Amino acid sequence: MKKMCSIRFVPDGKRVEVEEGSTILDAAYKAKVDISSICGGRGYCGKCQVIITDEKQNATPVTLDESEQLTQEKVDAGYRIACKTRLKGDMTVKIPDESRTGKQKLVVMGVEPETKFEPPVMKLYLELPEVTIHDRVADDLRIINNLRERGIRVDKIDYKVALKLPDLIRKANWKVTAVIRYDGELIDLEGGDTTANNFGFAVDIGTTKVAGFLVDLKSGALLRAEGIMNPQIPFGEDLMTRIAQIVRKPENLKKLQEVTVEGINGLIKQICETAKIDQGQISELTIVGNTAMHHFFLGANIAHVAMAPYPPAVAKSTEVKAETLGIDMRPTGYVHLLPNVAGFIGADAVADVLATEMHRQGDLVLLIDVGTNTEVMLGNSKRIVSCSTASGPAFEGAHIKYGMRASTGAIERVKIDPVKLEPAYSTIESAKPRGICGSGIIDIIAEMLKAGIIDTTGRICASHERIRSGDRGMEYIIARKEETQNGQQDIVITQQDIREVQKAKAAIHTGCTIMMKQLGISSMDIRKLTIAGAFGMYIDPVNAITLGMIPEVPLERIEFVGSTAGSGARMALKSVTARKMADELALKMGYIELAAEPIFQEEYLNSMNLPHADYSLYTETMNRIRAPRTAKIYRRPKTQ
Amino acid sequence: MKKMCSIRFVPDGKRVEVEEGSTILDAAYKAKVDISSICGGRGYCGKCQVIITDEKQNATPVTLDESEQLTQEKVDAGYRIACKTRLKGDMTVKIPDESRTGKQKLVVMGVEPETKFEPPVMKLYLELPEVTIHDRVADDLRIINNLRERGIRVDKIDYKVALKLPDLIRKANWKVTAVIRYDGELIDLEGGDTTANNFGFAVDIGTTKVAGFLVDLKSGALLRAEGIMNPQIPFGEDLMTRIAQIVRKPENLKKLQEVTVEGINGLIKQICETAKIDQGQISELTIVGNTAMHHFFLGANIAHVAMAPYPPAVAKSTEVKAETLGIDMRPTGYVHLLPNVAGFIGADAVADVLATEMHRQGDLVLLIDVGTNTEVMLGNSKRIVSCSTASGPAFEGAHIKYGMRASTGAIERVKIDPVKLEPAYSTIESAKPRGICGSGIIDIIAEMLKAGIIDTTGRICASHERIRSGDRGMEYIIARKEETQNGQQDIVITQQDIREVQKAKAAIHTGCTIMMKQLGISSMDIRKLTIAGAFGMYIDPVNAITLGMIPEVPLERIEFVGSTAGSGARMALKSVTARKMADELALKMGYIELAAEPIFQEEYLNSMNLPHADYSLYTETMNRIRAPRTAKIYRRPKTQ
Question: Which pLDDT belongs to residue B633?
Fold first, then answer.
C-alpha cells in the first residue's frame, strides 16, 4: 500500500489524506476546497496556482513547464501549479484569492414561451370503497376501477407499487393518493391526501455547468433554480478530452456516470432543502444536455461519437426509472432524456429550438447557443438545419492568460479610448480585478480593433506605453498591477489570447456561413438572430459583430434568450405535448457536419480575420473600425 | 452461537450440518435427500418416518404423539417421525423405502386447443447499412429505421440494450439480430444471425407441483416438459398453512419468493440442459398459478387474501422484467403473469377456461380442476361463474393412514368383489404396494359403498375377516402385510380415512351445487363435465360419481383434460391474442364465495353423504350400490 500524505488547506482549514504521488489538485478536489482549474488538471490552463506554506520539501521540485506558467516572482514566493506538483509527504497549502473560482452566477434563466400545462404526472386523491363481502374486488383493480369512474385510465402498475398496495391502502383507511403518469402507469400510491405535493425537476447538463429547476407540477410554477459546476470537470474541461479519457480507459465511463448522477443528486438535495420540499415527491425528471453529456449520464458508449462520422449511440428520447439510474427522487418515477439529433447536436439544441420556438416562425431565424461547443441552428417552420462548432473554452477564460470565469473581480466590460488608447473597465461586483471573463475578452478585442491597436488579421500593430512585449508575444495592458486584487501582475491581453479568440469566433462564424450557404441565403435574410446560452447573455452584440463572431445583421434583429436549454427541459417537464414536439423536432432537424463540407477550410480561414476577410459582409462594421486592413480572401483552387 | 450437529443420511450417504434443536426433517430438507412429508413438517401426516441407526441418544425422546403415529413395533425398531425428533448431537439416519416419495409422474400434459400462433417475441436478422459520412444516423435510430422499412414498429429500447448497441453492432460487422416484443420494445440485440434460437418458457406453479414447458417461439412447438415438487412445501403442504406462516412472520414471504424463484430457475436449467438450449435464449416466460402462488412468486402481500372477503393484492395481469425477479433467462425479457379472478380463483383457473374453451361453448360446461384447492367453473360463452373449494390434500394422500402420492408402489386401482368382499388392486409400475394414492382411495370407497361395506353415511357397517377394529376406528384391509413392500403392516383404509374423503368430496360437490343453483340449472343441464388437473386424469369417473364427488351426469358427457393450467400458460406464451383473452376472461368470470352463501352449511352436510343425502340427484348411482341407506336431508330452519 502506498504511503498516505496529510494535506491541510488554508485558509479553509480543511485537511485531507491522499496517496503519495497524488497532485495537490487531486488533494484539493478530495478536500472539496474552492480551487480554480479550467483544464481540469491537464496542465495547460495554469489557473490552479497555490502556495506551499509548510514542508515545501515534501513536494516534487518545480519543473521547467511549471516555471513557464508562473512568473519567476511567483516561483520565488512559493507558488506552485497544483496539478503539476506531486506529494511526497504532509504539507500545508494556501489557495490564494486569485486561484479561487469565487461566487459564480451558475444559473442564467432562459426565456420560455407559454406552454399548455399538461404535466406528465398527476396526483389524485381517492376515497376507495372498503372491501366487503359484496365487493371483493382485488386491491389493484379497486384503484383502477375507481380511477376509471373518474375518467382516468390506468393500465399498468409499477410492480413494486403493486406489492405495497394492500398494507398501504388499509393503513391509510382506504383514503389514498394515486400518482399517475400520463401514459397510464400508476407509479405510486400514498396514504392520505398528498395532492398538495407534486413536483418535477428539470436538469440542463452543460459541459461546464449543471442547472437544476424545481417545478410545481400542480401549477407549473418554477419554485427554484440553482446550478453547480459540472462534476465531470476533473476528467477534462472540454468534452473531447472527457471522451478521450473514456476511449483510453473504458472504465472511466462508469466514473463519469457516477459523478454526474452524484452531482445531480446533490443539486436535487440542495434545491429541495432550500425549498423545504421532500425530494421523494419529485415524480419526474427531465434531462437535456449535448450528446456527450446525455451519453455520460446514461452510461452509453461514447467512443463512436468521438470518431467521424460521429453517430450517437442513442438519439431517441429515453425513459428510465429513477431507481435504475440511482436518482434520488420517487424511485418509481421516470427520468426522461430529450432526444439527440447527432453526435454533436444534442438534446440541449433540441431544447433551444423548442424554447425559442424557431420551428413556429415563418421568418428565418439564426439561433446560436454559445458555449464550449457552440450549436448553430438556422431555419423556420419549414426546415431547420444545425451544426456544431468547436468554439472551445476561450470564452470561458481558458487558454487566455488572464482569462477567468464570470465571477467576482472578473473584468466584464471594457471600452478603449480610440485616441488615447486608454482602457476603461468594469468588474463583476465592482471588486478589484482578478482577470477577464468572456464578455470582457470580446469587448477588449473588438475595442482594440475599433481603436486600431490590432489590424484586421488580429496582429497587435500599434505602439503605446500599454503595449509591450511579453512571454506570449505582444501584449496590451488592461489593468496595471496596482489596480488588481493581488497587486502583483498587470492584467494584459496577449497576442496569443487574441489568436485564441479568433479561432473561437471563426469556428462559430464558419458554422453560420456554411448553413446560410446550404439554405442559399445571405445575412440580410436572417430576420432574427437569437443568441442563447448563459454566456451569450453578457455579450455586447455590437462587439460580437465587430469581431465577426456573428453575421452582421441590424441590431434590432438580435435577441438574447439566456439558457434556453434549461427552458426546453422545463417545458418538457410541464407539457407532454412539448415533449412530443421535441421528439418530432429531433427527427426533423437536419445536421451538417462542418468538417465534411468542401468549403469548410477556406471559410474558416476567411473567418479568422476581424471581422472577416470579405469586408462586404460587414459593411457597417468596417465603417466603425480604425484597424489597418490587411485581410485577403482565401479561395481554394477549383477542382476540375 | 448454537452447537452444530452433523447428520449422515443412509443409504444416500449425504451429510449435513444443522443447528442443535433442528428436526431430522429440517436436516433432510437441507441435505436434499428424498423424504416423504405430506404436511411439510407440521406433524399431522406421519409420513416422514425414519430410523436412527447410530447415536440414538442424540435425539429427543419419543413423545406420546409420535408413538401414536408409529406402531409399537416400529418404535421398537428405532423408527421416529422426522419432524418431531429434534437433534442434540451427531447421528446417522436411515430413510426407509416407504418414506421415500419415489419416482413420481410430475408433469401431466393438458389438452390444448389450436391457437393462432402470434408469439410475444420475434427475432429478425438485420444487415444494417454502415455509418458513413452521408448516413450518420444514430445507432438506435438506425435499427428502428431498418425495422420500420420492414414493417416492424419499435418505439422503445430497453435502456440496457441501448447502452450496448454501439459496440455490439460494430463487432458484429453490422449484421445483427433484433429481439422484438409484440408491444414494440426492442428487448435485445445479438451479433450475427441468431434467429434460429428463439424460445419461451411457460410455468404452472401448482400448490404441490411446478411444471415447466419449453416452447420454440419460431414454430410454437413444445420442446420439453418437466416438473418438480413445489419448493414451498417445507413451509406447509396446503396453501393456507403457507399463508399462515407469512401472516405469523412476514419475512417468510421473502423466503417463499426466493425458493419459488430458485425452483423455477432450477427447472429452467434442467430443461434447457436436457434440450441443449441456451437458457439466455428464453425471451419470455408466462406464469399461471392460484392467487397464493402468484402472490408468493411476485412477493406480493398475501395477508389479506387469507382473511374474508379475501381480496387479492394483484389481480391484473402483470409484466416484470426477468432481471427484476431474478429469473435466469434473457434478463431484459419479460415475465408475464396471467390475471387472477379472486383470492381463491387464480390465474390457473383462468388458464383452465382458456384451454378448455368453455368461454366459446353454447352449451353449459362444468369445469372442475381437482387439486388441494379445487376450482369449479360453470358456464358457457355468455357467462361463467367460479368458486374455490377447500378439498384439501386427502386425494394427494395426506390425512389418509396409508395415503401416498402417485408414485411407484401406490395402489391406484381397486375392485371389491360385491359378494366375497375381497379386493383386487393394481399398483403404479406393478411394484409391491407401499400405500394408496388418490385414485385408489376413490376406488376403494366407491367399491366399499357398492359392496355395502359402508352405508350411505360412510360408516363401516359390514362384518368380514378383512374388517377389524384399529387405532383409527374400524378398518378394511386392502393388502395384507405379506403382499406389501416392507412386509410389516397391512395396508388398510380406516373409518377416519373415509371421513377425510367425505369431507373432500363434499367440499367439491357443494361448490358444484351452489353454482348450479346460482344459474338455476340441474345436473342434466350440464352438457359437458370437464375434469382438469393432473390428479383428475386418473380418477375413475363412475367411482367419482358413486362417491358423489361430482354431479351425476351421463358418462359420455364427462371428459378428462389433464393439466389445463399449464396448457393455458403455453397458450399465453404462444399467442398474444390468447393473452388478451385471458385478461378479458378474468374480468368476465364471476366469483362465488361459498362460505358466504346461506345454503352452504346445509348443502355441505347433505354432500357428506355417499353419494348425497338427496338420492334423487343420483338415481343411476343408487341403482348400483348395495349400501344400507341411512342418509337424511338437512334443511336449515327457515328464517322468518
Answer: 78
